[in-house]
Specification:
The protein is α/β, with parallel strands linked by helices. It has 15 helices and 19 strands. Helix content is 35%, strand content 21%.
Length: 475
């Protein structure tokens, strides 16, 4: 089958793509920026990539006419706390419009469980998108999931952050709300299982794992799997706003996502009985097994995707191309260079920077800078990185965003997503003479920007000099 995969560079899309390729399908990946699709060159040779933004009024002839099915995986929850529902509705209407002239037979939409009398804004938006998609000229299959548990998922990473960092917690009363977590492995089985299955046409199914748990039980069972006890005291005084700040400061989530998550966590999310498991012959694994499976991926460095790499987890709202040309005028720079003996090893060192590897010099100073950034509402250092030694354009790298990762031409370009009175780039290149170049560029905004840069010159002197030296010598 020829399949249109929207949201191909999102958490679910990146997981689904290899499964569809393994089944022999022809895949058309729809993304807003093709430079951000974090797949290797071998995978790119087996797919077609089209650039499309379903919030824009163009792209009328971009989608191939001969597609057979499509996965609708477009969500905007982390982009806003106020108007994401309007964006999601507009995207769905545009999708229907653009897909109308194709030969499509089926659309599969991953939604959220909407079986509660009073829905959060997030779940209400998901239901609205369902209604819009049902108006399209195709057969619709809706899969409604609750908490998805897998390495890199926002839910799993939040639970992981809370339990690993806070063995003793004072929690809001929404931790007593029931939910039905589902392993990412089983999400993939459901998504691929309904493809082309006529029994699933124009049907909506709730999908959940075998365990119905409160969020408190999920935290406690996480600790059990990891071999430690999690102590929780539930209090009724934490308002949604306080809860959002609590998640933001303790975990790696963004504030916008925290607000929308807390809004949804107040609603019970339990699957209604349906026969989809029987139709597809799927037996979902338990919550504890899902945690164990997630850690196998983490320990083996085989995490495929992470919510943190989403563009809207940082300060980017538009294409990376706006920032990829480093300015030359009106900027302040710290330029270092060093002759190296083993360029291949140095290149590998560059590609491992950030995350658990750190920044090669003064990591404690980087951590302090991350804490200050988080305290001021920035992204901080907790995002880390998805892969220990692979980098793709668009990836999150602590409080940086990868603009360009060209290993063939030995160049890595990062843009700062921390809160700054200006804009900052950090670039590493190795030239043909085996000279390592490290350049920090800062474009200040007004007087405060310049004062900020000059006040940090003493720290830059040690940090940047130490960083290039250690990158060149690290083995």
């Amino acid at each position: 089958m020829k399949i249109l995969l929207t949201g191909a560079n999102g958490y679910i899309g990146m997981r689904l793509l290899p499964h569809l390729l393994e089944e022999g399908h022809e895949i058309v990946c729809a993304v807003r920026d093709k430079n951000r699709l974090a797949v290797d060159e071998e995978t790119k040779r087996h797919i077609t990539i089209i650039e499309i933004d379903f919030l824009q009024d163009k792209h009328n002839d971009v989608i191939p006419k001969d597609i057979d099915a499509a996965y609708y995986l477009i969500h905007s929850m982390t982009s806003s706390t106020s108007d994401f529902d309007k964006k999601e509705a507009a995207s769905a209407k545009k999708f229907n419009e653009l897909i109308a002239s194709t030969n499509i037979q089926q659309v599969i939409y991953l939604s959220g469980m909407v079986n509660h009398d009073q829905l959060s804004k997030h779940l209400s938006s998901r239901k609205r998108v369902e209604d819009i998609l049902y108006e399209g000229n195709f057969k619709l299959t809706v899969l409604r999931a609750g908490i998805i548990v897998g390495s890199g998922s926002s839910s799993f990473e939040i639970i992981r952050d809370l339990c690993e960092k806070l063995p003793f917690m004072i929690t809001p009363k929404w931790v007593l709300t029931k939910t039905q977590p589902l392993a990412i492995r089983d999400v993939m089985l459901f998504l691929t299982g309904v493809l082309g299955n006529t029994k699933c046409y124009n049907q909506s199914f709730d999908i959940g794992g075998p365990d119905i748990l409160t969020y408190k039980q999920m935290l406690e069972r996480y600790g059990k799997v990891r071999g430690f006890k999690v102590h929780l005291i539930t209090v009724p005084v934490m308002t949604p706003r306080l809860s959002s700040y609590w998640l933001f400061f303790v975990t790696s989530t963004s504030y916008k996502l925290a607000v929308n998550l807390v809004d949804s966590m107040k609603m019970e999310v339990v699957a209604r009985n349906n026969n989809l498991q029987k139709i597809l012959n799927i037996t979902p694994i338990s919550y504890e097994e899902a945690i164990k499976l997630a850690f196998k991926k983490i320990e083996q460095n085989t995490v495929i995707s992470s919510w943190k790499d989403s563009m809207i987890s940082g300060r980017f709202k538009k294409s990376l191309n706006k920032y990829i040309k480093v300015p030359e005028y009106g900027v302040l720079k710290d330029a270092q260079q060093l002759a190296i003996k083993n360029p291949d090893q140095v290149l590998e060192n560059i590609w491992k920077i950030g995350g658990s590897t750190g920044w090669y010099y003064g990591n404690w100073m980087w951590r302090i800078r991350g804490l200050l950034d988080k305290a001021s509402g920035g992204v901080g250092l907790r995002r880390g990185r998805t892969h220990p030694n692979k980098i793709y354009a668009g990836d999150a790298l602590d409080f940086w965003r990868v603009l360009l990762a060209d290993k063939e031409h030995k160049r890595l370009l990062l843009f700062a997503e921390m809160r700054l009175p200006g804009e900052a780039w950090l670039e590493f290149t190795i030239d043909d003479n085996n000279i390592l170049h490290q350049t920090a560029t800062f474009r200040p905004k007004g007087l405060w920007g310049r004062l900020y840069w000059y006040s940090l010159i003493p720290f830059h002197y040690f940090i940047f000099a130490g960083m290039i030296r250690n990158i060149a010598n690290y083995k």
